[in-house]
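Exam review. A common question shows you a sequence with its structure tokens and asks you to describe the fold in words. Practice with the pair below. Do the first one on your own.
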Amino acid sequence: MIKMLLISLLALIGAVALALLIKDNPGYVLIAVGSWSVETTLALLVFALLAVFAVLYFVIRFIARLWSMPRSMVNWRKHRKEEKAQRALTYGLIELAEGQWRQAERQVLKYAKQSEAPILNYLIAARAAQEQGAEDRRDHYLQLAHQNPVQADIAVGLTQVDLLLSQNQKEQALASLRRLYQLEPNNPQVLKPLGKLYRELGEWNNLIELLPKLSKRKVFDKQTLDAMALEAYTALLRDSPDADTLILNWSRVPKVLRDNETLLLTYLQKLRDFGRDGEGEPLLRSVLKRHRSDALLRMYGLIKGPDLTRQLIQAESFLAGHQSDSTALLTAGRLCLRNGLWGKARSYLEASINAQPNSEAFMELGTLLDKMGDRDTALACYREALRLAPCCEPPVADEVDVVEHVTPAIEAPEIVKPLSADKPLDAASA
């Protein structure tokens, strides 16, 4: 509008200036062609030329409008359909939010082909079909979305994964996520559900390979990522089919996790299961010097190291400053049994019971007393071990109270001096 006003104003100013210029001297023009001639003033000729130009301009413009009218009609109709498609998409989204699944599906499909972004219509239709339990229609709409010219494989794929997971179809969702991962391996929206599915389906090797990328992209918070790493490596160790594979899997564990109690105990227990627990004794000894815990102390008494005498000396060193530690006393007692020091083993086990009655100490003491011929006291120890075991019910009222058979409160024995490697062990020594 402003442009037209400026043009009109400039034309008016030009006309006035031209009129003033030719007012006193209109000029003279003679045009002769053969025997035909035209005489006129310059001013009249100029106005005639301007009039002819104006007429030609409007005639040409009119013809151009007539020529382009079919195309304009097509564009107008297309624009009108796009407006209808946009309204249908809006109404479809509202009905989807209200839980009107069937109406939402119909609305978004009505003008899907005329929509500026038909992929959105098909994705909404797929979700509406999913809510109606129509998996065939859902898959059909997703296929139509994939065929859309717009490159939106990730958006379509993630929607498909979300729909599959809502139906607990985890294997199919995992297959889709693996395909998306090949397309965009650094997309957090792909990495997050992929990591979760690997964890839920127990695909620990795949999860371990994915952990560095999950950490780099900050897909999960540190606490969640640490829990995932611990669970993955623990399961990897637990599922090792043989000792060599177990040791190889342990070498894959990051150094920052190797002092973790749960992980370390899993590794050591598996070594025991394979009869290779001696290979874990140096590792456990090293960890115990840095990090003392009852669970690790207990394991130290269960594994059989390459040098039992040295292992006993090490266990007794853990009693320094902890003479009333029930677990440390139990560990020392067990290692005394392995070294054939029955008298010292009995003292340690009774001291462990006096410090804190526990099922394992009673069981070990019962086994020792049985070997020493004290069957009645051994039987009482077994009964007490069963009573204290978490999985067992309390004993009946007439059962013998084992406390009557166990030596009254005994102080923890003094830490023994290092034993000579060539000194024979007497099974009956005190």
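Now try the second one, then compare your answer with the model answer below.
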Amino acid sequence: MVKGDVNKPKGKTSAYAFFVQTCREEHKRKHPEQSVNFAEFSKQCSERWRGLTANDKRRFEDMAKNDKVRYERDMRGYVPPKGMAKSGRRKKDPNAPKRPP
């Protein structure tokens, strides 16, 4: 069962997410048969991201800006289906008994 609207535009991607995506592609090119340990891979990627200069990060930040523009453009044309209103926080029943301490 799919939760939410399948026609809703995909969310915007951050600069770090673009960086991790390229890291993963590099890793797959170098080691095509090797399975990836996600925890170890994430640590290595985050260390590499912290070590990048602002100039190197700019490429990924530009990709994120372009994706944000794409997302905003797609959301302008998006109309949510009826019955898919934002569900707020449930109201607490004032008559409900209090929990003991």
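Model answer, second protein: The mean pLDDT is 88. The radius of gyration is 21 Å. Full marks require stating both points clearly.
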